[in-house]
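User: Hello, beginner here. Can you help me understand these amino acid letters and fold codes? It all follows right here:
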Amino acid sequence: NKSTFDGEVVITVSPGSYSSRFTDLGGYTDQQRAAVEYIYENGITVGISSNEYGPELAITRGDFAVMVYKAFNFSPSGNSWVFNDVPPNAYYAQAVNTLYERGVVSGVGNGDYAPTANVAREDAMCMVQRAMRSVGWSASDGSYSSLSAYSDGSSVSGYAQGAMSMAIQRGYLPVSGRYLSPRQPLTRIDMAQILHRVLTA
């Protein structure tokens, strides 16, 4: 015998459980938390403590080099001392020196890399584009006209226009409204989204 049911079926969907290990991601979207979970599980970065991720903290040039190095699985190469301010025993030295050898990063002048300075959003996208190219991925410049759709598109540095355009057209770069904020420091939450989007595209 077949039974029939006359009524309403209610299906409850629980909120995303991404990054439940971090207590400071409660106000973020499932997509953002998924990105953090991805980079954590893939060993690209960890939290600032056992239960905090620090989503709005800025990232230094040294730390971002380490993240890019790990994200793209680079192997150690290059000299042990390339920049005056990156001693061989620094935790970011291997990453910085390898990325320099592979053409992913450059210095800031006078033989320095400025590892403790914050990495700007436009510089981060340049590094990501160069890393993609270095490992053989397609990473051609985007159409510069895409920058004009943003209120501050004209403030993107000339050397970063191709990388920023690519990031916009491919949806890699998180943006706020009509602003790219190219020279603002890259935050840890935006870094997670960028690397997650690039690596899973």
About this structure: The chain has a mean pLDDT of 91.
